[in-house]
Amino acid sequence: MTTQSRQIVSTLNADGTLTVELVPEEVAAPTGHQVLMRVEAAPINPSDLGLLFGPADLEHAEYSPGRIVAPMPEAAMRALAGRIGKPMPVGNEGAGTVIAAGDAAEAQALLGKRVASIPGDVFAEYRLVDSRLCLPLPDDLPIELGAASFINPLTPLGFVETMRREGFSAIVHTAAASNLGQMLVKLCAEEGVPLVNVVRKPEQADLLRALGAEHVVDSSQADFMERLIAAVDETGARLAFDAIGGGTMASQILTAMETVAARGMAYSRYGSNQKKKVYVYGALDTGPTIVTRSFGFTWEVAGWLLTPFLFSLPPDEVPKLRARAAARLTTTFASRFKAKVGLEEMLTREAALAYNARVTGEKYLLTPNG
Q1: Is 301 exposed, middle or buried (0-12, 13-18, 19+ CB in 10 A)?
Q2: For 251-276, how does the pLDDT look when each residue is reduced to its tens digit (9 = 90+)?
Q3: Cβ(70)–Cβ(58) below 8 Å
């Protein structure tokens, strides 16, 4: 038997518009290792917003019940030509109750239990997921914490693991007052990793200092570069994770690293030979990444995504990371949400403009079944 459900899909149209809508669907009965999950909570992450809306103009969109039609910039149409006419389901991670299961022992063991999973299409009322990718949740764990148990917890763990694998000893992190950034502050304190936190507002700096962050620099202040250089000098940070993406932040970080590395060395037109690297993992600024090469030749700017990172690990390391995240879901990796929205409400003008604004500390939670 099938289960009647509804899900949110995003479709780029050939006429230069993007349609995001709530559509009915029939979900097949689970077989084998599959389980049928009644979705109870799903965080709206920046990675979801990139697929859901991208650079579409929500201010000038047309809103109707269960549907948004928004104009898409011409440049985006060229860059996203491969998805024209293809309805894309949205929602990387979520949690809910298993109401049916396939005949595999792993699936049957989850029947009636609350689980978290990362199927990639969880903005829906019901979802088929692989039982082997499910994380059983303790009965006393709030469902919203379980729903956000993959992306945000595993990302800071991935940052620290990347640092160690590549021979670095400290980290610079931008947009550091985000939910993920606050988790990274706690994790680095627990594991003795020096961390430089870059924020954009004085109140964000106060927030992180209240959490115990030692090195916080505010990019809105006139002495930002001076303070960034001092923090890089004190921590020895030569690796950065940049959530901003566009603009000059990556270049400024590399300049600060080179300024510290070049102190006391004889002049060389090639700069220092100190390894310096910035990973761009977000796109709060969707404009070009501007690199002004004032930091010699020993540097890298690269991209970092959680899924490719996990695939790069030895198979036995991924369960260990997941276990570390699961053990601290109520402490180090606890998520906080500004508000909850339902499926219909998610496609209203007020809600869409609010959660798509990506304001630091204002994460939203989708509750598809009320």
Answers
A1: middle
A2: 999 999 999 999 988 888 888 999 99
A3: yes
> CA-CA distance, 250 to 350, in Å (whole number)?
33
Q: Are 126 and 39 in contact (CB under 8 A)?
A: yes
CA distances from 239 to 231, 274, 294, 299 (A): 13, 11, 17, 10
Q: Are 128 and 29 in contact (CB under 8 A)?
A: no
Find the DSSP H helices in 89-133. 105-108
Q: How far apart, in Å, do the first and last CA atoms of the chain sit?
A: 24
* CA nearest neighbour of 195 among 178, 179, 217: 217
HSE at residue 217, side-chain half, CA atoms within 13 A, is: 23
Residue 332, C-beta contacts closer than 8 angstroms, at least 6 positions apart: 153, 183, 186, 187, 190
Alpha-carbon span 180 to 224, nearest angstrom:
22
The answer for residues whose C-beta is within 8 angstroms of residue 357's C-beta and 6 or more apart is: none
Kindly report, residue by residue over 176-227, the tens digit of the pLDDT.
Answer: 999 999 999 999 999 999 999 999 999 999 999 999 999 999 999 999 999 9
The token duo for 171 is: 């980290």
Both tokens of 238, joined, read: 């030569």
Tokens in use for 367? Answer: 């509750």
- CA 136 to chain CA centroid, nearest Å: 22
Q: How far apart are CA 278 and CA 301, in angstroms?
A: 5
3-state helix, strand, coil in the chain (%, to 5): 30, 30, 40
What CA–CA distance (Å, rounded) separates 181 from 37?
30
Q: Give dist(CA 187, CA 153) in Å, integer.
A: 10
Q: Which one-letter amino acid corresponds to residue 232? A: V
Q: How far is CA 161 from CA 154, 155, 157, 187, 253, in A?
A: 10, 10, 6, 12, 21
Q: How far is CA 259 from CA 98, 191, 251, in A?
A: 55, 27, 12
